[in-house]
């Protein structure tokens, strides 16, 4: 049995009196790939932001390897190093080159040897097909390239778990694939990942388990085949119907 | 070639006097810039705090200085405040006071703008990488703010240099005033001198401001 990395118990998040997350229980084991889906505004992005302590929480606990994650707590910078996060809008640092974007935190935060970090960064860049972009600035890259750099930046910190927050949502369709391929590759390497996405085909391919959230609650939790083929709850069925619209229209023709 | 009357500048020490006038203008602007830049950074940083009272105070200050023509400000400080408060101000000191008040307000607004233009996500992605608050400012926020700020503040510097041409109105003998004096003195012998002398003044202002303008463009190109 793999060790439990992340344990969320009864997590409650309120914003201006409104419950965004309401009693979330979640356990992520080492090597798990969990995909979180749900209608927009259901709280799935907020869940990731809470796990990285970017949002204060109002109740419950989030524990990484038994250590409490909470915004403002003293050891939070240490904990965050174990959690890699990739954002929807890439959020590379525009004033730094690709290689500096990647090496900044390992060198300044983890105090690792600069040459060693650089070497690793170059290997990772090569792996995502961007070795020739090391000296470029983010503005010179396409959206898909930026997102791959952002993934490498997170990886270079050697995180225990990677959080992906709708990382393909801002991309042009033809660039989505290159980013998803990188993520599939990471899954194959056995990285622990928590992925929020709207790419249902991708979710089906990559997930060990699908978590369906609606109105701040986990409504369904199942293996991907099970969830996509035989959703148990009415709300999950309704949600999945949104994505099968194309097929419906096809039958009408 | 029409007679532009530039030759009057070669009479006696006229050219030297004109350059001394330029030096007076530069002195007022440089001293004002050196004082108002750091003050402006402080004011700009204060304007981004959450405290409503602090915000309101600086807002009023900024709007007041912005709306007032600089010449009116000069008159208030030089003629108004000396009378009302009974102190003694030289024209140059009054000019520096006005330019510092003005420069600080403008610089403050530029700093505020640059600071709030850094997206919230830059702070977050930095924090998500485990950088502390101080490291986030040091490596992420301040370098980006400075990059946005430098072209803008250089533009402000050239505006401050140019605007010193107003201080002759409160009796400071700077370049433009010297030029007028030279033209006045040679009205009979060289009636066309106004054109030539003001042309030279124009060129001198240009060379005083141009290097800053070039620097701003170079930096902008490098960073954008």
Automatic annotation (TrEMBL), chain B:
Domain ABC transmembrane type-1 residues, every copy: 22-216
Signal sequence interval, chain numbering: none
CDD domains assigned: TM_PBP2 (cd06261)
GO cellular component: ATP-binding cassette (ABC) transporter complex
MF (Gene Ontology): transmembrane transporter activity
Main localization (coarse): membrane
Protein's UniProt name: Amino acid ABC transporter permease
